[in-house]
Amino acid sequence: MPELAAELVRAGVDVIFGQSSTETGAALATTKIVPVVFAGHADPVGVGHVASLARPGGNATGLTMLLTDIAAKELEALKEALPSARRVGVLFTSTAPSHVPALEAANTAAQSLGLELRLVGVRGEEDFQDAFAKMVQDGVDGVIVLASTLTLSRRALLADLALKHRLPSVFGAKDNVRAGGLMSYAPDSTDLTRRAATYIDKILKGAKPANLPVEQASRYELSINLKTAATLGLAIPPTLLARADEVIE
């Protein structure tokens, strides 16, 4: 990805759009001049991509979904669906800068919920099989999958592996649930990407990224796949179903 970012800079683009912290990090490592706009950054302040949400201060700005909060909510949803759960696997992308603070937030949330975490990092889809095998070996009751470009783009494979190993899983995007995952708690990524276009428009008209405050996601959605729940032999509590924004039957 750094090579691709460098190619864009050499091409003389006016703005670089990077969906998440992974793409944004590669762009910022390449240029401190070309404006960078992100749409689904998980923690721009926590990883140092902006100085603050109100005053980004550098050449990057956009929208954030605050993965530190989402990771805690995902654990809460999994615990509600599996009240007897004691040990939970956390599948994270080791190349995603924002997953470091997200893991810290997950650990804090796990302590308050009485859960023990098993952290498993992956770099690419070739690591998925071994990651699930390790979590099964560790005796996890369920899994949360931290959102990243990798986990979204390989959503069908992840859903298949979770079902194969009979592990109830909570994901960071509703598209993962539509692909067969059990649940997700996530911002409306379509809305975030559309709103990012307004940043690009302002920058092309002369605005500086340093002066454009980073906005937070305004809408979060809980999605549940009842077909997957039935396959797992899992009864979703009515209180959790009642809060769902999308139920797939």
The CATH topology of the largest domain is Rossmann fold
What's the helix count? Answer: 11
Low-confidence stretches: none
Name given to the CATH homologous superfamily of the largest domain: Response regulator
Range of helix content:
40-55%
Give the SSE string: HEHEEHEHEHEHHEHEHEEHHE
Main beta-sheet annotation: 7 strands, mixed
* Second-tier CATH architecture of the largest domain: 3-Layer(aba) Sandwich
How many β-strand stretches? 11
CATH class assignment of the largest domain: Alpha Beta
Mean pLDDT: 94
Which sequence of strands runs across the widest sheet?
5-4-6-7-8-10-11
User: Radius of gyration, Cα only, in angstroms?
Assistant: 18 Å
Q: Please state the overall shape, judged from the principal axes of the Cα atoms.
A: elongated
- Distance between termini? 38 Å
Total separate domains: 2
What structural class do you assign from the helix and strand content? Answer: alpha/beta
Q: Percent of residues in beta strands? A: 15-25%
How are the SSEs placed, and which strands pair?
Layout: H1 2-10, E1 16-18, H2 21-30, E2 36-41, E3 60-64, H3 67-81, E4 87-93, H4 99-113, E5 116-122, H5 128-137, E6 142-145, H6 149-153, H7 155-164, E7 169-171, H8 174-178, E8 183-187, H9 189-204, E9 215-216, E10 220-225, H10 226-231, H11 238-243, E11 246-248
Parallel strand pairs: 1-2, 2-3, 3-9, 4-5, 4-6, 6-7, 7-8, 10-11
Antiparallel strand pairs: 8-10
Helix pairs in contact: 1-2, 3-4
